[in-house]
Structure to design on (499 residues):
């Protein structure tokens, strides 16, 4: 198998070998979870749809290779996470340019989910913390799987989760509980 | 250990899942991915928009022939036969109505006022004035809806080949005739704000309703368009204002030339607006921009020009 930069062992969500329809089956199974992930990470519906489509497009373009992966869902999520990060960087550069010429970017449309404050607080975390916390809370993934998606050590993910959760508690005004 | 944060997160996850289910109750057909892939393979490269979005609010067609004899009266619906825009940039359609103050030139590339959606489109062109614009972009069916929130609203007229829907932030969703031309689906968008800046949603609707088929025999423009943007190195003793333009920064005059295989194939003077348009046959080029009297190098970018496409470039020049 061609290396994808992270260990796929132990991955559960979508096993393409169990899917009879190949890409279509992956699309059917993962479109909505991925859309939710993109929505949580960006807070903008149109952008979430576009990033999701783009992630599937990347998979589609490499389907001959990706279809041989044990867990293409992990690869799909890594693509999405990276796309969202690239977009955030691009927006930051754009904001600097706009500021330089004295203009402002229109404010982003608000998240329509009733508890958008929570996801807004997550997005306000440092990038890696936000990614880890989103995967942890939205997809209920253990640290090991998050580490596979993000391409980092499990211990690093645990650190990100610890710091991210502590910051979230403070920002959301929740009681602080000593974590083990 | 379950605590308040975990409970709050679980509620947020359920809310978000419900919101997604309500917004997209059905998974869109997988064919959309295949269509998008096919377009990508066909070489319809996405336009890099960030810098141009920031800078491209003014006229981009500084070297084209502007048809000043238009019978379109900006701000009023057209009363006589619609004209063909000479060098207007899109042979698929043309407007019969434009808001007051809008130039009739159809300009390649995104503009500031329509920026938010342009970053996700393959092709973008616009009409506009110095501050506002209406963007026209190739759209993927299923991605034409834009949420609305805050003080800024997006009037988006989105259609696909089968059904047309107007997403109008001011009045909700309206039925609309399909807006599909040259075998593509298009989206019109503009921004408007409560304080009167931007284009009112009603005006955007008028533009959309006034679109008529273009001349398919008109050649699509091919080449590059760009802007030269100059700034001064900040003086550490001079504070940079938090709001308002940075002193000494803005579009600048200069020169631009296209070089292919080491041979200069085109050259033009860039006016004070900083914008230029260069028609080039398909191929690989190095676009070299210089500025100020001594022709100081502003930048050099390699571009691949594709038939029927106008690539947008931004050159940032330090004084």
């Amino acid at each position: 198998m061609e290396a994808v930069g992270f260990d796929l062992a132990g991955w559960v969500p979508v096993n393409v070998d169990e899917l009879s329809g190949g890409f279509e089956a992956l699309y059917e199974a993962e479109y909505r979870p991925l859309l939710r992930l993109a929505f949580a990470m960006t807070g903008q519906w149109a952008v979430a749809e576009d990033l999701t489509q783009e992630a599937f497009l990347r998979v589609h373009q490499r389907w001959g290779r990706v279809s041989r992966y044990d867990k293409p869902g992990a690869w799909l999520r890594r693509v999405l996470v990276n796309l969202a990060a690239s977009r955030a960087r691009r927006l930051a550069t754009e904001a600097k340019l706009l500021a330089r010429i004295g203009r402002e970017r229109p404010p982003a449309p608000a998240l329509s989910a009733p508890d958008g404050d929570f996801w807004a607080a997550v997005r306000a975390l440092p990038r890696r913390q936000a990614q880890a916390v989103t995967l942890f809370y939205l997809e209920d993934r253990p640290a090991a799987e998050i580490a596979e998606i993000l391409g980092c050590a499990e211990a690093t993910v645990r650190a990100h989760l610890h710091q991210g959760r502590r910051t979230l508690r403070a920002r959301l005004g929740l009681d602080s509980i000593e974590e083990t | 250990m379950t605590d308040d944060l975990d409970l709050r997160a679980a509620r947020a996850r359920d809310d978000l899942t419900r919101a997604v289910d309500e917004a997209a109750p059905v998974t869109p057909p997988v064919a959309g991915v295949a269509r998008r892939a096919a377009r990508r393979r066909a070489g319809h490269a996405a336009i890099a928009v960030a810098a141009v979005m920031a800078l491209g609010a003014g006229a981009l067609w500084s070297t084209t022939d502007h048809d000043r004899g238009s019978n379109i009266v900006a701000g009023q619906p057209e009363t006589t036969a619609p004209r063909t825009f000479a060098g207007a940039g899109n042979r698929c359609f043309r407007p019969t109505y434009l808001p007051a103050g809008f130039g009739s030139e159809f300009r390649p590339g995104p503009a500031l006022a329509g920026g938010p959606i342009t970053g996700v489109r393959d092709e973008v062109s616009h009409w506009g004035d110095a501050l506002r614009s209406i963007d026209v972009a190739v759209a993927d069916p299923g991605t034409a809806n834009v949420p609305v929130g805050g003080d800024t609203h997006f009037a988006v007229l989105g259609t696909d080949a089968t059904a047309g829907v107007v997403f109008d932030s001011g009045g909700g969703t309206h039925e609309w005739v399909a807006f599909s031309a040259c075998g593509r689906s298009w989206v019109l968008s503009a921004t408007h704000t409560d304080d009167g800046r931007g284009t009112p949603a009603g005006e955007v609707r008028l533009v959309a309703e006034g679109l008529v088929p273009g001349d398919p025999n008109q050649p699509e423009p091919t080449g590059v368009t760009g802007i030269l943007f100059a700034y001064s190195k900040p003086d550490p003793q001079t504070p940079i204002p938090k709001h308002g333009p940075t002193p000494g920064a803005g579009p600048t005059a200069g020169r631009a030339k296209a070089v292919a295989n080491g041979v200069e194939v085109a050259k033009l003077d860039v006016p004070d607006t900083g914008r230029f348009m260069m028609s080039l046959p398909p191929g690989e080029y190095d676009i070299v921009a210089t500025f100020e009297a001594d022709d100081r190098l502003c930048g050099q970018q390699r571009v691949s020009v594709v038939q029927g496409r106008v690539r947008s470039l931004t050159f940032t020049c330090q004084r």
Summary: The mean pLDDT of chain A is 74. The helical segments of chain A are 23-42, 45-61, 63-66, 72-100, 116-123, 127-138, 143-150, 154-172. Chain A touches chain B through 57 residues (CB under 8 Å).
